[in-house]
Amino acid sequence: MAADPTRGRLVTLFSGFKKFLMRGNVVDLAVAVVMGAAFGAIVKSLVSDIIMPLITAIFGKQDYTKLTFTINKSSFAYGDLLTNVISFVSIAAAVYFLIVMPLNHLNDRRKARLGIPEQATATEKELLAEIRDLLASQRNSN
pLDDT value at position 36? Predict the structure, then answer.
């Protein structure tokens, strides 16, 4: 009985796919997407249940989705956009202040505790000058 070459290719194909799925980056990305969806629901609730009523208390008018303006008989609905912009800014602020900033602070404290020196980040202009100097020195040595 001869071995089936198609079966061997399928096994190789699926083993490569399995390795891809089990890599840390893919699993981390899947967890991030699920956590992001849950976090988005929380922030959406925060915006619709707390922030928008506060704005309503200050400026009046509860239903922002019906806010429009008209130019030359064309109606532009901007209320829903306004709500989504507030939601986006709230999500971005929450992610920064609740996740990014504390993690950066913890990372800085860990580096200080371990004695890891701060790396000076070169500007783009400094890097280009260094490349220019390296190329000039290579031309002069040839």
Answer: 83
